[in-house]
Amino acid sequence: MTRHVLLGMINGFDPAKVHQRSPSEGHDAAFRELMLHDAQKSLSHELGRLVKTAPPGQESSIRAQFDGFERLFARFLQETGPSVKWEDIATLPSEAIKPYSELQTSFSKEAIKSMLDRLVVLKLNGGLGTSMGCTGTKSLICVRNELTFLDLTVQQIENLNTTYDTNVPLVLMNSFNTDEETERILRKYGKMKVDIRTFNQSKYPRINRESLLPVAKSCTDNTDAWYPPGHGDVYESLYNSQLLSKFIDEGKKYVFISNIDNLGATSDLSILNFLLNPQNGPVPEFVMEVTDKTRADVKGGTLIQYEGKLRLLEIAQVPKDRVDEFKSVSKFKIFNTNNLWVSLEAMKRVVETRTLHMEIIVNPKTLDSGLNVIQLETAVGAAIKSFEGAIGINVPRRRFLPVKTTSDLLIIMSNLYSLKQGSLEMNPKRSFPSVPLVKLGNSFTKVKDFLWRFASIPDMLELDHLTVSGDVTFGRGVSLKGTVIIISNHGDRIDIPPGAILENKIVSGNLRILDH
């Protein structure tokens, strides 16, 4: 939902007429401005009241978070119309996207140590595992060999630190949803060679859609009244945590930011060298890893040239009549992996000078009580336009292995990959490098149901496409090749027998295997 349409619904004016200011409508425009001013003033008053309910010792921290929210809310009220005019999108200049193949790949051990000494790794760890039927912190879900996302991340960093005698800090941006559980788990890594730091992203108040006032009555209200405002909050929250200044004082130069559920997002020495040892020209303050679009990625955000700068274009910003064009692989050939490399000094500058700008995502929700609320969020990659010399690097697909659903989990758990020091590597026996397209039906949505339906993970080395729908189970030692479609209609069940080899097959109907 766009911001000006929502405001139209709230305030009772026609959003299509917001920018049409004929003399006869001057009074309406003035009335609207007064109304928006009152909304901002009322919100500020309510936030001031909420600060007074803060637990002892947390007043200044909560005030700093509310200051950020007030600035976001003010922009929400004032910015009207589409954030991007489609006709003003310019062709990306050739230098905007650098091929990964042009980067140096071989370095001495001493050079690697020198580079890693200046790196910080930050993982976005604020999400829950709800999309996979889990209630807790997503990074604590087991994904391979009984190891969680967090286990694998810690293993990766420890391997770097041990191999190159360095100290790359691992920083986790938690949310109030994940902080307590994550902190408990971190104790088990106490003897590993990893300096783990944590900070929380902001805790913003949900806003009543009718009154535009916070739902919360106090800072200790239940979690329904609050929300984490998207990963775009990482810049200000890292700054407010004092960790940003600390890392700069320690001589760190760049932070590598990525989603903790992207198992391909490892610390890449070629990109790090490109940033720290430039061959010519100014050094980019911001690098976004992009990769080639496939049929599975048509909704992913892409880079565009707009008003002389690189900008991230998300599908939510695209006019309805242009969505098919946006999804086109021929026009928009790459998409954002959300693997980002950002200069620490530049990050500090844009926060302090308040030149950091990210499009506002208006996320309407209905609480269990039936109350309609809105959340104002931002995306970390949208900040690319706020940094000097920003570019994209077109990386191999192996750097984008997100696990959002159990369909992704099946791929990661299969023999398509092997695990080495916390990093996944594609099986060299796979004859082509692309990842198969896997679509598991609703019966597989929850991790526990997914695990029950597979007696063992099938051999998928030669699989191209798998679709499974309905009540289906897999016996041990099943092999899937080519395109396999298994559809069990309502009321039926299909048990794929142990040792079955399905190659370019469609299986439907009813197939039961019962104990004798």
Please sum up the structure shown.
The protein is α/β, with parallel strands linked by helices. It is 27% helix and 24% strand.
Please explain how this structure is put together:
The protein is of the alpha/beta class and 516 residues long. The protein has helices spanning 3-11, 26-51, 59-78, 109-116, 149-164, 179-186, 234-240, 243-249, 269-276, 323-327, 344-352, 406-413, 447-453, and strands at residues 97-99, 119-125, 142-144, 147-148, 170-174, 196-200, 204-205, 207-208, 226-227, 254-259, 286-292, 302-306, 309-313, 334-343, 361-366, 372-377, 391-394, 417-420, 423-426, 437-440, 459-469, 472-474, 479-487, 494-496, 501-508. Helix 2 packs antiparallel against helix 3 (59-78) and helix 8 packs across helix 11. The radius of gyration is 25 Å and the shape is globular.
In whole angstroms, the N-to-C terminal distance is: 57 Å
Which percent band covers the strand fraction?
15-25%
Major beta sheet, specifics? 8 strands, mixed
Name the average pLDDT: 89
Molecular shape: globular
Count of strand segments: 25
Low-confidence residue ranges:
1-5, 9-24
Count of individual helical segments? 13
Spatial order of the strands in the main sheet?
1-17-11-14-10-2-5-6
Supply Rg. 25 Å
Q: What structural class do the secondary elements suggest?
A: alpha/beta
**Helix residue percentage:** 25-40%
Explain the layout of strands and helices:
Elements: H1 3-11, H2 26-51, H3 59-78, E1 97-99, H4 109-116, E2 119-125, E3 142-144, E4 147-148, H5 149-164, E5 170-174, H6 179-186, E6 196-200, E7 204-205, E8 207-208, E9 226-227, H7 234-240, H8 243-249, E10 254-259, H9 269-276, E11 286-292, E12 302-306, E13 309-313, H10 323-327, E14 334-343, H11 344-352, E15 361-366, E16 372-377, E17 391-394, H12 406-413, E18 417-420, E19 423-426, E20 437-440, H13 447-453, E21 459-469, E22 472-474, E23 479-487, E24 494-496, E25 501-508
Parallel strand pairs: 1-17, 2-5, 2-10, 5-6, 11-17, 20-21, 21-23, 22-24, 23-25
Antiparallel strand pairs: 3-4, 7-9, 8-16, 10-14, 11-14, 12-13, 15-16, 18-19
